[in-house]
Amino acid sequence: MTRTVYVNGEYLPEADAKISIFDRGFLMADGVYEVTSVLDGKLVDFDGHAKRLERSLTELDMASPVTMDELLEIHRELVRRNDLTEGGIYLQITRGAPADRDFAFPDPEETPSTIVLFTQVKNLANAPAATKGISVISIEDQRWARRDIKTVQLLYPSMGKMMAKAAGADDAWMVEDGQVTEGTSNNAYIVKDGKIITRQLSNDILHGITRAAVLRLAKEAQMVVEERGFTIEEAQQADEAFITSATTFVQPVVSIDGATVGEGTPGRIALRLREIYIEESRAKAI
Ligand code: PMP
Predict the structure, then answer these.
(1) Is there an atom of ligand 1 within 6 Å of 56 CB?
(2) Nearest CA owner, ligand 1 atom 8
(3) Rounded CA separation 213/280 (Å)
(4) Which pTM was predicted?
(5) To the nearest whole percent, how much of the chain has pLDDT over 90?
(6) Cα of 246 to ligand 1 centre, how many Å?
(7) Is 42 among the catalytic positions?
(8) 1 pLDDT band (50/70/90 cuts)?
(9) What structural domains does the chain harbor?
(10) Ligand 1 centre distance from Cα of residue 109 (Å)
(11) How much distance in Å is there from the Cα of 146 to the middle of ligand 1?
């Protein structure tokens, strides 16, 4: 089946979808994005993603070409047209395509934002990584200082994934001033003596939508949560480690820089959080 994508108001076969070479997303990474997961043909936490999108746009003084209600409708229409049961919807908004390349932002009255959405089929609930656990390496965090804005500047995270791959690992945790910030495309956690530890929110990390849900669910299940930074050494000596993101949900981390975490198998708390997160997501998806 040919994938149907959405570009600036039109639903098109993917091969017919076109963007200008002057688009600032292409020339300057002047754009923001969101990924919303789909379970049972329904959107998981659409509201959380829509709110974060609005915040990213506001922080960059970028106009949204659609209202959040229209955005929900576009997401649903793409799910319908592509018969998507499980996977994700990628959304990107850029500052549009001015007449020429220029560092200054174009006048939004003359240059409307560009909006693109497409579906991605992916096995989420039964991903093998969830039962096996993943291995991570540590790398220096060399990203810009506004990681709370979900921009499309993903070159360093891509390089991080390649560094992990070259080392035979699945992903990389980034470290700044001796403490873990987050994974290349996920938030990072450890568990010690039953306590869930994850870095506090600031401009240093992306405010994960899955992070917010998982921490709320952990507290509702009477688990103790401590929001603070931690070092790689502390993580290697933890009882468990795990990551969260919209498309991985909760995935256990079983090795860090070659050192086994806990028993070297997915931890009990990580697996329990994954279970309750999927259960609630299925129940509340729209
Ligand atoms: N941190 C980074 C750097 C990410 O790219 C992502 C995924 N987009 C996350 C955290 C997790 O965020 P979410 O739970 O909203 O997918």
Answers:
(1) no
(2) 185
(3) 9
(4) 0.97
(5) 99
(6) 7
(7) no
(8) confident
(9) 4-121 (3.30.470.10), 128-284 (3.20.10.10)
(10) 32
(11) 14
